[in-house]
């Protein structure tokens, strides 16, 4: 991956709907080589997917809760069962295995307390769950930030 690839990725992070022509202009290429680079970055898995960011409040999902979950034990069958169950909870936006006092950190988007209660009940119904701690987001300062490509650009040739 060279400097042009990194500039192309940075441009896509700023505007994922930019046309190939617009991207090509931003990275000083013609459209055909730019399209080839994009295709290669997609095939190599550097570009994972394209997505749109929706307004949670306008969709009735304004409450964001970070949920720490501790399991009773760490047997592979228990963790696999927990992770399978979390994958089925559509309001869980992200699930991370973490270090520290808990085993998982979930980001949940819901419509309010009663909506969140249903998610908690689903988690509590799992026999391997020992403890659930919830942190309600009061206000979001930064969300879905772009990856920091500046450091990579500085080192790219």
From TrEMBL:
Keyword Transmembrane helix belongs to the record: no
Keyword DNA-binding attached: yes
GO terms, molecular function: sequence-specific DNA binding
Domain of life where this protein originates: Bacteria
HTH asnC-type domain residues: 1-62
GO cellular component, as recorded: cytosol
Biological process annotations from GO: regulation of DNA-templated transcription; response to amino acid
CDD domains for the chain: HTH_ARSR
Keyword annotations: DNA-binding, Transcription, Transcription regulation
Protein known as: Lrp/AsnC family transcriptional regulator
Species per Swiss-Prot/TrEMBL record: Crenobacter intestini
């Amino acid at each position: 991956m060279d400097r042009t690839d990194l500039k192309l990725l940075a441009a896509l992070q700023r505007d994922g709907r930019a046309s190939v022509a617009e991207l090509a202009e931003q990275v000083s290429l013609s459209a055909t080589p730019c399209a080839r680079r994009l295709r290669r970055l997609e095939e190599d898995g550097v570009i994972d997917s394209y997505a749109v960011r929706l307004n949670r409040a306008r969709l009735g999902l304004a409450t964001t809760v970070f949920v720490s979950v501790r399991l009773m034990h760490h047997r592979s069958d228990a963790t696999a069962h927990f992770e399978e169950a979390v994958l089925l909870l559509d309001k869980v936006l992200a699930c991370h295995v973490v270090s520290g006092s808990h085993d998982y950190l979930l980001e949940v988007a819901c419509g309010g307390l009663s909506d969140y209660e249903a998610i908690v009940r689903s988690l509590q119904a799992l026999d391997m769950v020992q403890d659930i701690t919830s942190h309600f987001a009061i206000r979001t300062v930064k969300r879905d930030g772009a990856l920091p490509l500046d450091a990579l650009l500085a080192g790219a040739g």
